[in-house]
Every structure is written in structure tokens, then in C-alpha cells.
Amino acid sequence: MSDTDPELEARLAEADEFEPPEAFVEQANVVDPELYETFEENWPDCWERAAALLDWTEPYDEVLDDSNPPFYEWFTGGSLNASANCLDRHLEARGDEPAIEWVGEPTDEANRTYTYNDLHRRVNEFAAGLRELGVGEDDVVTMYMPMIPELPIAMLACARIGAPHSVVFAGFSADALATRMAAADSEYLVTADGYYRRGDPLDHFAKATEGLAEVPHETTTVVVDRLRERDGFGHDLGAGQYDWETLLTDHAGETVEPVARDAEDMLFLMYTSGTTGEPKGVKHTTGGYLSWVSWTAQAVLDVKPEDTYFCSADIGWITGHSYIVYGPLALGTTSVMYEGTPDYPDRDRLWEIVEDVEATQLYTAPTAIRAFMKWGTEYPDRHDLSSLRLLGTVGEPINPRAWKWYYTHVGDESCPVVDTWWQTETGGTMLTTLPGIGAMKPGAAGPPLPGVDAQVVDAEGEPVDAGEAGYLTLQKPWPGMLRTLYRNDERFVEEYWATYSDTDSDDPDDWVYFPEDGAKVDGDGYVTVLGRVDDVINVSGHRLGTMEIESAIVGVEGVAEAAVVGGAHDVKGEAVYAYVITEDGQTESEAFREEIVAAVEDAIGPIARPERVVFTPELPKTRSGKIMRRLLEDVANDAELGDTSTLRNPDVVEDIRDAVRGDDD
Length: 665
Ligand code: PRX
Fold this sequence. Notes:
By secondary structure, the chain is an alpha/beta fold. Helix content is 32%, strand content 21%. Among the domains are: 112-259, Rossmann fold (3-Layer(aba) Sandwich); 456-529, Luciferase, Domain 3 (Luciferase, domain 3, Roll); 535-664, ANL, C-terminal domain (GMP Synthetase, Chain A, domain 3, 2-Layer Sandwich), CATH 3.30.300.30. The chain contains 23 helices and 29 strands. A seven-stranded mixed β-sheet has the order 5-4-17-16-18-19-20, sandwiched between helices. It binds adenosine-5'-monophosphate-propyl ester. Adenosine-5'-monophosphate-propyl ester binds at residues 272, 318-319, 394-397, 419-424, 445, 515, 517, 529, 531-532, 538, 543. Adenosine-5'-monophosphate-propyl ester (PRX) binds next to helix 14, strand 20 and strand 24.
């Protein structure tokens, strides 16, 4: 099948709805179309179905306690352990089956397979090690690790002893690590000496060390020796720093009784970007979160124990937490984990992995699909992808052309594609088609899942007509929801609830969750998510706060003011555009531009690297002094300019546009 098959292209271009493939439906986990109705009728008890996927140490008394909205509690009175649910209970039936199939770099190194028995053993040993280092229940353990098996081992070991983890994406900077450790008062760090990127070893420990130096309290660190002698950087461990392997050897064969955690006890924290410079510590709990990710992995990703399920996300983000680690392992399947990038050593790397491991599902991001599409069909065509049964996307809107490319050239028109909308805060998927039930409409995520009450509303909170753009809201709570922002209940209410709720009311009907996305809904109830409506941009599926980037830029000596917006990018979805006013006497040189880019990389990481730094004498401002970002977005997108009449300096927009266009020449 090629990109240029005109007949196929024409057929696909016309189709805007695809029925689930019959062969898929015949074997799907969830096929009952009545489910939507039965969940609605039995809400909130419908969620017992999700909780029933788990083993509970103590059964819960109540499905939902909504007496104090928006501080909802789920499965109250129940207790369980997440690591026991992901490991121990599978040992009898699946102890010798692979739990994690790890594919590493460089490619000549053997991949590692961890059976459920292996993983259980390692998790117990590390749990014993953590205890020896003093980690107790409710101590937050930070992980700053690449995509190596020690990361899920460390997460599950924490879960075993009731210590919440806070995973910081390895691509984030030393500063970002320090901020998150300080905010969580986290005294423990698990990290690695390095990892491989496109075949080259990277010195991760140097970055971790730099971050640790900025943490205002004492820390204990465990370091995985990933590169070993062959490519190591020869770091010595200092006081309070321990070698992973030695720690495990010291506890070889030990078992640690899983701690029974209250359903509402924190399982982990995940910092994510918001509208201010300060990252938000999203708190997820043991019972609700684990039920949610297990149920959605089963219903949406169609995960079965005998599958080899491949999610190409990084565990440093929520997708990896929910759908590489917790959901798949709770269901006892084989989860594939890949250390590298899709284009090394060649652009067929992902397809090579799919063929090698015989992956049954592939869950990836639209940005990756757009890159695959650009590279061409010759790469998937090199491999036998017939093991695939289902495809998924997550993280940003997918344009219908990319959707159809994925469906055709990867799925061979025989795999449903689930376009899953959710957020760090929701814990797991909220809007998508159920692949064994609903028709798929490329570009639209789909209807809300059974039991999820999503509505698209106007600024007053009234539902908009079909086809009209509005704001996405969730009108009812759900078990996987964040419980609060760590140590900041006020910001939790302010950010997610205040917009559409009567915050004085204790009636749950008066409380509405606002995810800060724009959306529209069609006559069949399918939601198309249009993107963020706050100051958050989505670069290659990575969520970045423009304020964080701005504060890094204004920290550079010689910068007077900066505004950052997202501009459309054909592969990344959005790219970072920085408009910068320099101080008097500062030359607007290429070297200064590079200094600004480097400052952003230092403060956040290479993912936040500005695509363009545009020097400008002024920024478009309203009379009250507010920067009109919308106009800067128009400039970044080379789009028709919106209304400039409220500006106190309307001419400046044209000047900036000329500067941007001039740079393009
Ligand atoms: O804007 C939405 C977009 O990603 C945001 C959430 O980002 P994050 O918390 O980093 O989680 C990403 C992985 C779940 C959302 O507010 N988003 C996510 N999935 C989709 C999406 N936009 C459109 N379609 C999607 N399927």
C-alpha cells in the first residue's frame, strides 16, 4: 500500500466514519452497547465494575462520598495495595509470563524480559532497600530516570510500602528536578548514571547532581548504573548516595509484605504545567486511580492478559504511568517498554519492535504519527505488522489525514483506532469510542465513556448547539480524578472548579470540572477537542506552561520582557514562539538569541526549546496592560490578525509580523 495509491486516497478522503472491524468486535472485551445506558442509570454504583477488577484487602463501604464537593472520595473504607494488584495476584497463573518486555538502546544489547516472578522479586528487594534507607509510609520518593526497567520497579516498590512517588521526566532540567523535589519536600531520589539517545551515552547523573545541589534539604539518592563500564562517565557516589545493584544484592530474596493502603491514600504525585510558573502537584489515589486505569485499559485498549501491549510514551508523563505501568500490569498483561526514539537506528524502529515482540496494541501520540507520515510508508511496509489488533492515540488532537494514515498504513484497515482524550488530572481516558461498539470519526475523540458526563458549554456554562465551539466540562466526578493539588486545595478549586461551579454550595450538582480545553460536539455526541484555552501549549504531546518559559527568558540578563505563545507546527502540533523585548544597549544578535534558547533548556529542558525567538520593540497590549497573546498566536501562525481595536499600540502587531516574516526570508 503506498501513499500515492489514488483510489485508496480518494476513498479514505471521503470517508468520515469507520465501523469497528468485525474480527475485532468478535473478540473485544466490551461489546454491549447498552453499557452507556446501564452506567447512567446506575451511577455512581456503575463504578463497582471498575473496582471489581482489583483485589481489595478490605472491601469498601461506599462507592462515592460526595458530601464535600469538590473533594470527592471514592471506594471509602476500602483498602488495597497497588503493587500487590500489579504483581502478587498474577504470580500463580502468570508468574513465568513476561510482565515487562524491555527494548533498550544500543540496539546490539540484549533486550530484557521480566516475568511477573522476576518483577515481583526485584520490586520486593528494592522495597526492602528503600525501607533500609529510611523511607516510610507517605514519604514522597522522587524518580528522575530514563526509560529503563528500574523505573517501574522503583514505582511499584514505593507503592508496596505506601510511599508515594513523584516521577520527573528525564528530559527535564536540573532546575525542574530541584523545584519538584523542594515542592514535595521529597528527601529521596532514584536516578541513573545515564542513558542512550540515538546511540550516544548521555550523562544524566551530572544533571541530577546539579539539581540536588539546589534542593534546600538533605537527600538520599539511589543511582542505577545503566551505562556501566562500557560508556559510564566515571562518577563517584557521595555521602547519602547508594548504588542500586548493591542495594538489591544486600536484600536479595527478601520479601516485603504489601502495605494495605486506604483507597483514598495517595499513590503518586505528578507535577504538570499550569497557567502560572509554578508546576502543579496532581495527587492521585490508590483505589480510584487504579480502578480507573484498569477499567479503561480493559475497555478502551482492549488489554487481555495474553497480549503484548506496546505504549510508546515515556513513563515520565502520565500516559506512561497509567498505560505502561499501572493499567496493563493490574490486568496481568505483557507491557512493552522502549528506551529510545522512533528514528534510531532507522525510521522503522517502532515497526521493527512491533514485529519482533508481536505487539497486539500500539498506543502512541499524533506527533509521532505525523512524523511517520512524513517519513513515508516504506518504513512500516518493511515489517509484518499483522500482530496488531488495536491502535490508539493520545496527547493532542489528531488531524483526520494522520488518523487515516495510521488506520491504513499501520492498521491495514483492520484495527480500530481509539483517539483518547484525557489529562494528567483525569488519571485515565475520559472521551473516546469503545472500540468494540462505536463507529470512529477521524478527528473527533468520540463520545464520553459510559458513566462520564461531558458537556460542551458557553461562557455562562450553558450547553452549546451541535457543531458550535465552546468549553469542555465534566459535570460529574469519576474515580480516577485528581483529589487535589498537593498542599494547595485552594488552587485546586480555583483552577479546575471555580469557572463553572457555585463554590459556596455543598450540592455536587453545583460543581463542574473545567479541564481548560475548547471543544465542539456533533449531533451524535462525538466530541472534537480543539486544544487548550489557557496559557498551556502542547509541544509534541508535551504540556508546557508559557509562563514557565517566559520566566526563564526574563531571567536572562539583557531581556526586559517576553511573551511566549504556541504556533502551529506540522509535526510537533505546536511549537514555542518567544517574543522578546531587550533592554536598552543589549544587541539583538544571534548569540543573544542562543543565550535565550539555552536559558529555556536549562530551566525546563530541551522540549521547551523555542522554535523562534523574535526580537520586538513592543508587545501588543490592551489599555489595561495585558499582553494580547491571541494576536501573537495569529502572527506565529501567519494567520489573519484578530481584532486589534482594543490595543493601545495597534501598529506593533504589523511590525512584529514583518519581523517574523523577515526572519523567514
Ligand atoms: O489539551 C488536551 C490534550 O492534552 C492535554 C492534557 O495534557 P497532559 O496532562 O500532559 O496529558 C497528556 C496525556 C493524557 C489536554 O488538556 N489532549 C490529550 N489527549 C487529547 C488531547 N487533545 C485532543 N485529543 C486528544 N485525544
